[in-house]
Write a structure and sequence with these properties.
Helix content is 0%, strand content 61%. It contains no helices and 15 strands. The chain has an 8-stranded antiparallel β-barrel. Strand 13 and strand 14 form a beta hairpin. The radius of gyration is 24 Å and the shape is elongated. About 14% of the residues have low confidence.
């Protein structure tokens, strides 16, 4: 479904965090983790994500071709996490993690025909995540008296819930500025507003890092984490295609389309202070 001729084609970081541990030596570990707002850089974001046509529900396809999509990434947002765990024999640890993320910003660019090179899109994503994670701590080495560095590996399984909304695709620089994607009399940019979506997905993660003893009961953890949270979707339903006629009047065209989907995979570099008592 090209935006210039709506309805004509019916194919148409992670985050820094603080943690509190209550762990009798040799016994169980109970950990409470409090996350701080993060500034995500480089790999601390989804990469090469694309919204494409999803399952066919008997409606029009928004993109109508594998060569048409909305490519982008999720930007910064507020993330908070809690975790509680136990220390096991053989340098193993297990913990249950719960996290929420609010106002993650999707920023992308669509590639409809004859709509210009710049076709910016934006949306908002809120998520929650519940993971059961296991870790193995390696022996490590002592780099100063009473100071030890201990590498670790970890993996986890769980579920992620999401809510996607405010999804808008804009067309500020079409190939033909006087054509069907012309601006309004006040410079208003034509756009397409998509349905939101929500759901729950199976999730898995892998992590590796190192814990450095800062003092007797304080450790600094630095780690990398990859998380695959399945797909996020816009619901099948009506979209609003907003265009402007030659006389400047606005027209809004509802078109019912199938769902669209994008992979939700993230790469994160984490820093954490862990307090053990």
């Amino acid at each position: 479904m090209g935006p210039g001729n709506p309805g004509a084609d019916r194919r148409c970081r992670r985050r820094p965090r603080r943690s509190w541990d209550r762990s009798p030596r040799g016994g169980g570990e109970s950990r409470l983790v409090r996350a701080l707002p993060e500034r995500r850089r480089g790999p601390d974001r989804s990469r090469d994500a694309r919204f494409v046509d999803g399952a066919d529900a008997g409606h029009a396809a928004l993109y109508g071709s594998r060569q048409r999509f909305d490519a982008g990434a999720l930007e910064d947002g507020l993330r908070l996490h809690l975790a509680a765990g136990v220390r096991l024999p053989y340098r193993l640890r297990a913990q249950l993690e719960f996290g929420i993320a609010r106002a993650l910003g999707w920023r992308g660019n669509t590639n409809y025909r004859a709509s210009g090179a710049r076709q910016p899109s934006a949306a908002r994503l809120d998520t929650w995540q519940l993971l059961l994670a296991g870790f193995h701590d390696f022996p490590g080495w002592e780099f100063a008296p009473g100071r030890r560095a201990q590498p670790f590996l970890g993996a986890g399984l769980g579920i992620t819930g999401y809510r996607l909304g405010g999804y808008i695709q804009r067309f500020p620089e079409p190939d033909d500025p006087q054509g069907s994607l012309r601006r309004g009399p006040g410079g208003e940019i034509p756009f397409t507003a998509l349905s939101g979506g929500s759901g729950r997905n199976f999730t898995w993660m892998l992590t590796t890092g190192i814990a450095i003893a800062v003092s007797g009961n304080i450790h600094l953890e630095l780690s990398y984490r990859y998380t695959d949270a399945g797909k996020i979707r816009t619901d099948a339903g009506d979209i609003a295609i907003v265009r402007y006629r030659e006389d400047g009047t606005r027209r809004e065209i509802p078109v019912r389309i199938n769902e669209t989907t994008a992979d939700y995979r993230t790469h994160a570099v984490l820093a954490a202070l862990r307090f053990e008592f």
